[in-house]
Design brief:
By secondary structure, the chain is an alpha/beta fold. It has 14 helices and 20 strands.
């Protein structure tokens, strides 16, 4: 097993940086089907980012996710040694910047520097009797889409869909509701893995296991194959679109499994995954641990190139913002404007927002730009390098954002997925704007960062620290303006109207 650790390091690196062919095909179809507007613009950025990640061998998304390993071994294989070597490979991948430090102590809030700790990484072992090879599959699923997982207990009442009973039609309603509630916060266009039945724990595990299926496979259970096809067709009529910008492509995959259940329980568990659908696998020689072949891809075939237009297509109508920004400049912006931000920008996620509610910021934020981002950062000598820097889901900061804008004079907040009524009111009252960057486009946005000017509050860990960055022409779209308008609220309302038309039984 001398080569096992290196094989796991290759698996982690490739999973984090190189989307498999079935996902690339699904995203290429999405680009072909989208009619234009903001969603197609977002898809162009995503396509560019996918190619950049492969070329740079850099993380596709700065949230490199929670590693879930599915391992099948021959009889007699030493699982204890495999666990040890997988952990070593995870720690080494983190050191090399292929994984972000994503393992946080739930009691102290301390971020492990090596991605190891209780529960991290997740490893599920199984054994086969006849095979003499080792199979390892890896899923990297980020926090934004993980937060949009949802579990239903039937019968129940669902917003806009009414009663969902203990039958296949009730399951249909749950899946549609799960897609609708994700909106752009889970980085649509996404995919869902679904489990019907089981207990609560097994339901979620089986739902995530469905994400190991190929996007273009066919369910062997006819009733579920029919339901998967229905969901794929119907979900893409909701009008949610890429990043929740509105549009024709909301879902790129739906995979449904089924388990037996208790008589008293009927759970429908949904695991939502983003467009950055990072899933690969390898088959290893059981004696040496060397890779014999890859799963989900053919190494004889080059990766499908995604880029068409090179990201945001300049029209000459872009609004240029240079920090510090004035209130007058902000009041001139409206929903739908594309902006190019230059100057100084400061990152701030969950820990920073909680800190700023109790303690003044370490730098002057008046007229400044606050970026909801937890970057992948490596230190090279005395300097820091940003290796990946896409936006995180903003809605987690809704309890804090309005007050922080008020206290510190922030003019622009950049994130993804939008924010709620409290933030919208603060934007209007204090003259600020919310800018939506393209979720997952970590390589694309890293190229707009010229320099790391400094860092504060490193005690929160690399993703949660406040990084001070100098950027040039950082592109984003105004989705909440200083006049009380919110694209996110509009899309959610419009898609809810469509959802309500789907309440009548189909199955």
């Amino acid at each position: 097993m001398d080569a096992f650790r290196e094989s796991m390091l290759q698996l982690i690196t490739q999973t984090a940086t190189n989307l498999p062919p079935d996902v690339r095909r699904a995203m290429a179809r999405a680009m072909g089907e989208e009619q234009g507007g903001r969603s197609l613009q977002a898809l162009n950025v995503i396509a560019t980012n996918i190619d950049m990640a492969t070329d740079n061998e850099g993380p596709i998304c700065q949230d490199t996710g929670w590693p879930t390993f599915e391992i099948k071994t021959p009889v007699g294989a030493n699982q204890i040694v495999m666990k040890k070597l997988i952990k070593e490979a995870v720690a080494e991948a983190t050191k090399r910047g292929k994984l972000r430090t994503n393992s946080v102590d739930s009691l102290t809030g301390v971020n492990a520097s090596d991605n190891l700790g209780p529960g991290t990484p997740t490893m599920h072992f199984d054994q086969w009797e006849t095979e003499d090879e080792i199979e390892v599959k890896l899923l990297l699923k980020g926090g934004g889409c993980e937060n949009k997982n949802i579990q239903y207990s039937l019968p129940t009442e669902l917003a806009h869909l009414g009663k969902a009973g203990r039958d296949l039609d009730g399951v249909r309603k749950c899946i549609l509701h799960a897609v609708w509630q994700a909106q752009g916060q889970g980085c649509s266009a996404g995919a869902v893995g679904v489990c019907i039945g089981g207990d609560r724990a097994q339901g979620y595990i089986n739902a995530k296991e469905q994400l190991f299926r190929l996007l273009d496979d066919t369910n062997p259970i006819p009733e579920l194959a029919k339901l998967e096809d229905y969901i794929m067709q119907t979900a893409n009529t909701l009008g949610i679109g890429t990043m929740g910008f509105g549009g024709g492509v909301t879902l790129i995959g739906c995979k449904i499994g089924v388990l037996n259940r208790l008589p008293a329980s009927f759970f429908v568990s949904v695991a939502y995954d983003c467009w950055a659908y990072r899933r690969l696998g390898v088959v290893l020689d059981a004696k040496t641990g060397e890779i014999k072949r890859w799963l989900y891809r053919d190494d004889q075939q080059p990766a499908i190139k995604m880029t068409q237009n090179g990201g945001f297509v300049r029209t000459g109508k872009e609004k240029v913002l240079r920090a510090p920004i004035t209130e007058e400049q902000i009041r001139e912006l409206k929903v739908g404007d594309v902006v190019l931000v230059s100057g100084e920008m400061h990152t701030g996620r969950d820990a920073i927002h909680a800190h700023l509610m109790k303690t003044p910021p370490p730098v002057d934020l008046n007229g400044g730009v606050l970026y909801h981002c937890g970057p992948v950062v490596l230190k090279d000598g005395d300097k820091y390098q940003i290796k990946a820097a896409g936006p995180t889901t903003s809605f987690r900061e809704e309890p804090y954002q309005g007050e922080i804008i008020k206290r510190y004079g922030i003019r622009a907040v950049i994130g993804k997925g939008g924010m709620g009524a409290k933030t919208l009111a603060a934007l209007k009252e204090h003259g600020a704007v919310y800018l939506n960057a393209i979720g997952g486009a970590a390589q694309y946005y890293a190229k707009n960062i010229d320099e790391v000017l400094g860092v504060d509050l490193m005690e929160f860990g690399i993703p949660e620290a406040m990084w001070h960055l100098r950027v040039t022409d950082f592109p984003a779209i105004v989705t909440m303006d200083a006049h009380g308008n919110s694209l996110h609220a509009d899309v959610e309302k419009a898609s809810a109207t469509v959802l309500a038309t789907l309440a009548e039984p189909v199955f």
